Amino acid sequence: MDHSHSDKAIEEVSGQAEEKQQQSRQETPEKVRSGNYTPQLATTDPEINKSAGRRLSNPNPRVAGEISISRRKSLTYDEARMPVRRRSLANADLMAVFYPPNTVSQPTVTETPFESAQLEGVNDKQLDNLQIGESDVASWEPTLRKAINSIVSIKAQCVRSFDTETSGTYTATGFVVDAEAGLILSNRHVVNPAPIVAQAIFANYEEVELQPIYRDPIHDFGFFRFDPSKLRFMKPESIRLTPQKAKVGMEIRVVGNDAGEKLSILAGTLARLDRAAPEYGVGEYNDFNTFYLQAASGTSGGSSGSPVLDIYGDAVALNAGGSSKAASSFYLPLDRIVRALDLVRREQPVPRGTIQAEFEHLPYDELRRLGLNMTIESKIREAFPASQGMLAVRAVLPKGPSDGLLRSGDIVFAINGKAVIEFVRMESIIDSTVGKDILLSVCRGDTAFNVIIRVQDIEAITPHSFIEVGGGVVNEVSYQIARSYGIPAAGVYVAIGGHVLSSASAWRGSVIESIGGTLTPNLERFAAAFSMLRDGSRVPIKFFSLRQPHKQKVAIMNVTTHWHAMRIANRDMRTGQWIYKDLKAPERSPEELAPQTATIGRLPMSLGPADKVWPSFVQLNFHCPYLIDGLKNTQFLGPGLIIDKDRGYIVCDRDTVPIGVGDVYITIAASIVLVGKVDFLHPVYNFAVVKYDPRQIGGTQVENARFHPDYLNGSQKLEQGDPVYIVAVSGDQSPVVRQTRVASRSMVSTNECLPPRFRCINVEGIKLNDQPSCQGGVLCDDEGLIKGLWTGVASQDLNHKDTTTMTGFDVCILRQTIEALAATGTYPDIRSLDVELWTIRMAAARALGLNPTRIKQVEETGGENPHLLIVLGVLTCETPASKYLRTGDIILEKNGALVYDVNDLSVIHDDKSVELVVLRDGQEISLKIPTTKLDGMETKRVVHWSGAIVQEPYRPVQEHMRRLPSKVYVSCTLYGSPANCCGLRPGMWITEVEGHPVTTIDEFISILEGQKLNQVQQPDCGARTESARDIQTARYVRITVVNRSDVLRVLSLRVDNHYWPPWELVHDPNTPSGWRSVQHI
Q1: What is the reported pTM?
Q2: Which of 34, 139, 189, 324 is catalytic?
Q3: Average pLDDT, the chain
Q4: One of 150, 167, 303, 387 is an active-site residue; which one?
Q5: How confident is the model over 1028-1041, as pLDDT tens digits?
Q6: Is residue 996 annotated as a catalytic residue, yes or no?
């Protein structure tokens, strides 16, 4: 710090004051106004600062109910009353008809020029003294009529989560600032630092592709580029940027895509020119080191990027955000935008510097409390008579250029010997000295001194690359993130965890410090560390959450990269497109088969039969990479039971392993972790079979589960009042043992799920008197012989919230599977009647017309609780059984024998048809019903196309439909994808593509490849080479869809192979994961 030069700086300020007085007779007051103060004409609510928001929209339903308006989830905005962005929430209303606004209060003067000749070139002082007659006042009507042709509605898809942004679809506004070059100005949070695909819609509904060519690293503005030659029916004019015109009390109009409307016009009056930049929440994008303008115009979602126009059609500011609690809007001044536009227009880089310090403008009374020297204050006031404050340091980033030189509370009064009291002047100096030293004159307490700081290129701490790994996205920590959390602008930031990083709970907002012991300070080191890993391995990862940056976390990460491509994307600064390059991904190695041996400890005698059962227990972790088959979650945990240690078979419930696509991690003896695969999913009963390589456990003394033979073959079952031991696994993986009794036996009841997923039906469940809290286990006797399974049954409540109920099942449901595996190593054929059954008591059967002879027969042979089975519903209308059985049929006989046990009808082995006697409408009728063969994997093909996960309709889906529109079912759509943008939703069926009917997945793929609909050229601002019809055919595909209500719709989907390449997963038992990836080009 140099204290010797501070007096010199003060003298220079004094000299500037004298010079200022000499110039004041000739210069306009703009220079004074560009400082810090303008008289405040409107009373401002002190709460406005806490309740402001960006005028940005996100039609994704996932944020509903969390904040008033926002693109994504954040930190309890509603409670914090944070600002929100103005993107429209109604993407469907984007093309709303424009209605001329009723905002003109003056008489219409159609021949009045847009800028009166009297006002052209008049400075502020002359303007104050100028006498304007009533006939000279311009009208808003011709101004707005001209302006709307240059204002566009922007629809965009953020295709990847990146930095402060999350993937999704939104609409906003922009306006043409250079018609010849095709430049459109909008907000930074619209142009977006993340990869986006955007289109602009002009007032005559012509659509053009946009290239996001520039976004400012700090301030909320950016530029799109379009090809003017693509506009055939209109020629927009440039809207002039005039920051010097902004004045308190000026009447303005904000024109843009407001609340989803194509064009809305809102009136307002500028109330402040020196408002602090609004805060949008920690971890969000926030502007700083600038003033904002404020007006009571009440803009809403979608108006981000709207021009703030004066009556002559010039833009005086850029709409950026607003209050969610009051009718106040915040506008970005245009001073720095004008500079950037000039450089972008000339295709030159925009130099932006930083010293990694945030400043705030404080009034003189607060500055005095910080220690402002009276001599300095008097000199500043003399140099800038209209000023009401100065700049003070608000925060300094650690390890940045200013760290150790500046600190919070420092008052900056000069840079390079020139007095500086406002943001524009300060940034102008910093931007012009990138890579050089600047001299700051600072007052700290009662001491004035100088410091020399090297100006850093802000682009060096602004990420322009990201890596996709395991379905997640990582990028380097940006200046925005570092500033939000007060951390150094370095490290690898998790924008979305995906399949791999989330396995270690490294969610969005984490910073990775090392992987497998290798430090990862940047993306290059991260990619190198990851490439050295082995697919299928488990490695330690060190990271910290930005919410608790002082607490380092260590977790185990599952390295499974075979589901997703690993690649790096770099932004092309000329076009804004992100260019992908494949990276070396971890590969499987024979080393993973090296045996590992663990010791299974003995349990104390006090735990009864647990010691005899415990060597058969394992812990299963299931992670699925894609949400298919109706899943809402991706990670599941539960116990498993070894049924064949020599071949490596484990049985578990379907609440632990719900689908076949995913990775299974098997923990044995709390010591060894193996990678297994899903081998079988029982389509009716609540269990799955997982397979592992028994060579991997070496000499570990695991044991096969010992089943009681009478209970396994079904000759005996647990009945009400029977004593039983429950041996289960607790949440901390320790044994839970309790001696109890069976409370009841009854049919298991589960609700239909949305989205449709497997549910357990047509089976009896067991309840216990004293049910412990656990993850699952077995019911056994005192010798450890297993009589029943204790499992979790997944369902949903009436609000479609996932629930799990612990229920016991007879072990006889495993018999056919165990015997088939032991005999042939294959699974048994499973056939079904495709109906949901329920028990019916004799009183109800009598009321339905069952004759007394039958009733007596059932009562004599039906045991203590005589009952029959009734058809509660037909599960699918497209199987043979659906043509014979009806809801309400009471089933009396199967193949000539009375039937009471639901197990005799829920699963039918080997019989391709059965003969039933049913009671229908009081009459007994005989039926020969074909059975339906069910698959043991449920889903064997998964196709991705344009962000839609497509599969054949699995069995639970058929339960919701009277008929299947096709066999091309949309199971999931990804945020920010073309599928999500066009309105394609989970639960829809695709029936046609470009007029071609599709009924199967094979037809769907062949039509896409045959028509080459997936070959899409990226937007090119060069010469026009395609006809209108060619463009429409190449870039948009018409698809016909049918929803659950059997309502048909035609959607227009913009295919994008660059960000959403098509691929297919095919079930292949010969691969380590059980699945093989196929890339479609």
Answers
A1: 0.84
A2: 189
A3: 84
A4: 303
A5: 333 233 478 999 99
A6: no
